[in-house]
Amino acid sequence: MIAPYNCVVVANGTFPQTALPLRLLREASVVIACDGAVQALHDAGITPTAIVGDLDSIQPRFRELYAGRIHIVEDQEINDLTKSVRFACQSGEKEVLILGATGLREDHTLGNISLLADYASLFDRVEMLSDYGIFTPIRQTTTLDSHPGQQVSLFSLSPCGRITTSGLRWPINDRQLTAWWQGTLNEATGDSFTITLSPGSPVLVYRTL
Amino acid sequence: MIAPYNCVVVANGTFPQTALPLRLLREASVVIACDGAVQALHDAGITPTAIVGDLDSIQPRFRELYAGRIHIVEDQEINDLTKSVRFACQSGEKEVLILGATGLREDHTLGNISLLADYASLFDRVEMLSDYGIFTPIRQTTTLDSHPGQQVSLFSLSPCGRITTSGLRWPINDRQLTAWWQGTLNEATGDSFTITLSPGSPVLVYRTL
Fold first, then answer.
1. How many angstroms separate the CA atoms of A138 and B190, rounded?
2. Distance (Å, rounded) from C-alpha B35 to C-alpha A109?
3. Which ipTM score applies to this complex?
4. Which residues make beta-bridge pairs with B175?
5. CA distances (Å), origin B6, targets A106, A206, B3, B98
6. Could you say which of B83, B99, B131 is where a domain stops?
7. How far does the CA of residue A83 sit from the closest CA of chain B (Å)?
8. Confidence of residue A207 (pLDDT cuts 50, 70, 90)
9. In angstroms, rounded to a whole number, what is the distance separating the alpha carbons of residues A144 and B140?
10. pLDDT over 90 percentage in chain A
11. Is residue A38 scored above 80 in pLDDT?
């Protein structure tokens, strides 16, 4: 379902446990660790290409072991995920998969998910994958792959935007999704579905795996 | 920090693992299981007072064991958490603590967190607690307990609402929080902090434990 990514950014939430994200991680040429995520990568036997962040939460032994790969970014205004994603962009990456961005602290989960919409303009393709599902940011009318019965949720990041869907079991017709739960728990009826957006109203699409 | 609750609703996300939520669960007189959460409660040696939902995801043996405690609610428009919370309200509960509402599927996590704001009008006190932090919905200017250095995040559920804070390290001054991440990763400076809201603009306050 998900084409390989050249670059994977690993955030400091729950490290992936299941086959799909672990395969995509191992197949990536470039692996960027957000600060303390270096520990979980090391435990999984994966050497990060780069470690990015303020390095508050990295053990001294990793500072030594990966000395040439550390990129310290001090900026209180942005979180470690954004520092790593910007590093990927500045390194010329055009497609980035984000792992480990959810789970554990809920404020980090919510922040990271919403930031995905901001990252969409930086890359040709950027998605956020967990053991449970994948978030895809869309900024214009988009058709996505699915399988019949696949659970689909839509999260509007601009409550004034209007959304229309086709190929979902409970159609949405030119509607605003003002509460986060209003677009949740829909279901694909076939091999694809289409989300039609009003201009300038990004939406996050979540599909279960 | 958290006064005991008479009623705890256990949703079907990650079952609590840490001392505080488990203590509040064991001290509650009324424990309502959202559908499949009965399994985790049973494994923890806790008998639910009631099991509420469409009961899609409950094992036949629990249907028999807890036959007199099962309340089937068929309604495609609301999720199992809302069914259980409404059951608590109809049972006369005035204060409800929600556990197990986050973790696992991110669409459920986002939906459940946003629904907490809707539940605020049903009770004198309602909060959502995980192993990492607690969400408190506020509908008017409110002062909350804290400890110096405690991480605090604010999530605006009405992007038009304006927010002012005192007692936080990075003050917010009559500002709209249009993206979910904009109010995250703040920090209490003392034993309490105050959020001032414009009317009709609910906010979820997250404090780490």
1. 41
2. 25
3. 0.94
4. B163
5. 25, 36, 10, 12
6. B131
7. 14
8. very high
9. 41
10. 86
11. yes
Q: What CATH number has the domain bearing residue A84?
A: 3.40.50.10240
Q: Both B116 and B48 in a single domain?
A: yes
Task: List the single best residue of A114, A180, A186, A205 to mutate versus B (max B Cβ within 10 A).
Answer: A180
Per-residue pLDDT, averaged over A111-132, amounts to 96
Query: What letters, b where the CB count within 10 A reaches 16 and e where it falls short, cover A177-193?
Result: bebbbbbbbbbbbeeeb
Structural domain boundaries, residue A41: 7-131
Using a CB-CB cut-off of 8 Å, the residues of chain A touching B151 are 107
Query: Domain boundary residue among B109, B131, B153?
Result: B131
Confidence of residue A161 (pLDDT cuts 50, 70, 90): confident
Q: Is the pLDDT of residue A46 over 80?
A: yes
As a whole number of angstroms, the distance between CA A203 and CA A139 comes to 7
Residues facing B71 on adjacent strands: B52
pLDDT average, residue stretch A126-148: 97
Length of chain A: 209
C-alpha–C-alpha distance, residues B32 and B7, integer Å: 8
Residue B201 identity: S
Instruction: Check residue A58 and give its pLDDT.
Output: 87
Both B30 and B65 in one domain: the answer is: yes
Residue spans of chain B under pLDDT 70: none
User: Which of A110, A132, A208 has the highest number of chain B CBs within 10 A, making it the mutation to test binding with B?
Assistant: A110
Structure tokens at B190: 């003392």
